Amino acid sequence: MSHHVVEMHWEGDALVGTIEILDTPLGRALRRMYLRGDALGVSSRGWATLCVEANGVTRVGDDFDLIT
Fold first, then answer.
1. Residue 31, SS3 per DSSP
2. Strand partners for 5
3. Which of 2, 12, 24, 67 could be stapled to 30 by a disulfide with Cβ–Cβ 3.0 to 4.6 Å?
4. What share of the chain is helix, strand, coil (3-state, %, to 5)?
5. CA distance 40 to 38
6. How far apart are the first and last CA of the chain?
7. What single-letter DSSP state applies at residue 30?
8. Numbers of helices and strands, H then E, in the chain
9. Does 66 have pLDDT greater than 90?
10. Residue pLDDT, tens place only, 7-52
11. Three-class DSSP category at 57
12. CA–CA gap between residue 46 and residue 30 (Å, rounded)
């Protein structure tokens, strides 16, 4: 394990969070990558109704539920 999530909140359509990097082998590797300036990212999974509009654009429904 490299980190744990301290806090999460929505800013418009973006989910923003704060993590604490742990003092573990993977945490120290993550810290080195961050300090080196590497691009870091996270993934998430959720469920929602998808709505295909007349112009072919797919929109995520208001029932979105973040799972992990």
1. helix
2. 19
3. 2
4. 20, 40, 45
5. 6
6. 16
7. H
8. 1, 6
9. no
10. 999 899 788 999 999 999 999 999 999 999 999 988 888 999 999 9
11. coil
12. 25
